[in-house]
């Protein structure tokens, strides 16, 4: 897919697209990490909340893509042999796994909310409206050492544990494929290119299914929230609808490009020829539309900072939140209306 120009570097159109994509992902990563620090500065004593985890995963994914695009240009011009095999495959696959894992977590929370009334008795009071990693309550006796190792005290829901397990398994499969690709460089029956192609095709099918699942559960939540008459519910309703639509459009386009072309394997440059302009458009469709746009959209939906909390004063949220977990003060007037509408959604709805 690559016609060598000026030695061993990419065509000018592809160089420009790679630089542009690297800049976009770099900006998204910086915004995600900056917002993460701002959020943490306002509620550091709560530990890892859902909002923080999403910012961390999206920031890490886009940072990985930034390094991938930069290293792709350097490897193409320098002629790195390892990059065209297992090294390029790992750097390509790693940020994609983090990206999909973030949206799997989003799906797990939506599933929790849709089936919350059925799971309340089984989970012994655990509610999905809590943070992904349960908010640690402020304790005056908590010492500095315990805060440094807050990950040891985290608690997750059953569906979030499944997401973590699936992510670990996918990472293991990716490493196994990378090893097979490396072995295939020698004289043996293993075809490195086939191994990589099978991996990206199967991953594309998984992404397509993820987009469909987000659309289905997004529709269910949208219909449930339409029954709740409140300004907050209306705002969250359109956030869910927007996320579902963006996920379907972006994930479908990304999966179709993967299945119909070998754009994800563009790092395997030395064996292929390419039309610079055509391939550049496919790169934009696959990476910008398929990854950068959904990442930026989620960050935009979660842009609101949590309120500053007064020490030794704990207030539990009674507001519908589907992608944020702020603590808000509920006035007596809204409590009456919220309570009367709780039966319209579900017994355990976060209202």
TrEMBL record:
Residue intervals passing through the bilayer: 13-33, 53-76, 88-111, 162-183, 203-223, 243-265, 277-300
Pfam family, one: THH1_TOM1-3_dom
Chief location category: membrane
Membrane topology label: Multi-pass membrane protein
UniProtKB keywords: Membrane, Transmembrane, Transmembrane helix, Vacuole
PANTHER family linked to this entry: OS01G0751300 PROTEIN, TOBAMOVIRUS MULTIPLICATION PROTEIN 1-LIKE ISOFORM X1
Family: Belongs to the plant tobamovirus multiplication TOM1 protein family.
Name of the protein described by the UniProt record: THH1/TOM1/TOM3 domain-containing protein
């Amino acid at each position: 897919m690559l016609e060598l120009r000026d030695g061993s570097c990419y065509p000018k159109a592809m160089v420009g697209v790679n630089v542009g994509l690297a800049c976009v992902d770099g900006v998204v990563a910086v915004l995600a990490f900056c917002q993460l620090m701002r959020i943490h500065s306002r509620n550091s004593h709560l530990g890892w909340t859902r909002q923080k985890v999403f910012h961390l995963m999206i920031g890490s994914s886009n940072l990985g893509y930034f390094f991938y695009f930069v290293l792709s240009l350097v490897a193409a011009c320098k002629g790195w042999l390892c990059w065209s095999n297992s090294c390029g495959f790992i750097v390509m696959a790693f940020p994609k796994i983090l990206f999909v894992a973030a949206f799997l977590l989003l799906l797990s929370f939506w599933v929790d909310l849709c089936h919350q009334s059925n799971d309340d008795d089984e989970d012994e009071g655990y509610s999905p409206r809590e943070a992904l990693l349960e908010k640690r309550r402020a304790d005056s006796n908590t010492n500095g050492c315990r805060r440094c190792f807050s990950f040891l005290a985290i608690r997750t829901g059953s569906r979030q544990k499944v997401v973590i397990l699936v992510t670990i398994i996918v990472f293991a499969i990716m490493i196994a494929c990378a090893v097979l690709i490396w072995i295939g460089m020698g004289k043996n029956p293993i075809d490195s290119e086939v191994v990589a192609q099978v991996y990206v095709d199967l991953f594309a099918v998984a992404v397509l299914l993820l987009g469909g699942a987000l659309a289905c559960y997004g529709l269910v939540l949208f219909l449930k929230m339409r029954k709740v008459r409140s300004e907050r519910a209306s705002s969250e309703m359109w956030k869910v609808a927007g996320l579902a639509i963006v996920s379907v459009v972006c994930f479908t386009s990304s999966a179709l490009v993967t299945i119909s072309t070998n754009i994800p394997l563009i790092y395997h440059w030395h064996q292929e020829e390419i039309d610079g302009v055509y391939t550049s458009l496919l790169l934009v469709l696959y990476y910008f539309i398929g990854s950068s746009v959904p990442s930026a959209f989620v960050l935009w939906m979660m842009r609101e900072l949590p309120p500053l909390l007064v020490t030794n004063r704990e207030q539990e949220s009674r507001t519908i939140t589907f992608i944020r977990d702020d603590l808000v003060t509920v006035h007596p007037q809204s409590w009456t209306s919220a309570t009367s509408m709780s039966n319209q959604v579900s017994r355990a709805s976060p209202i």
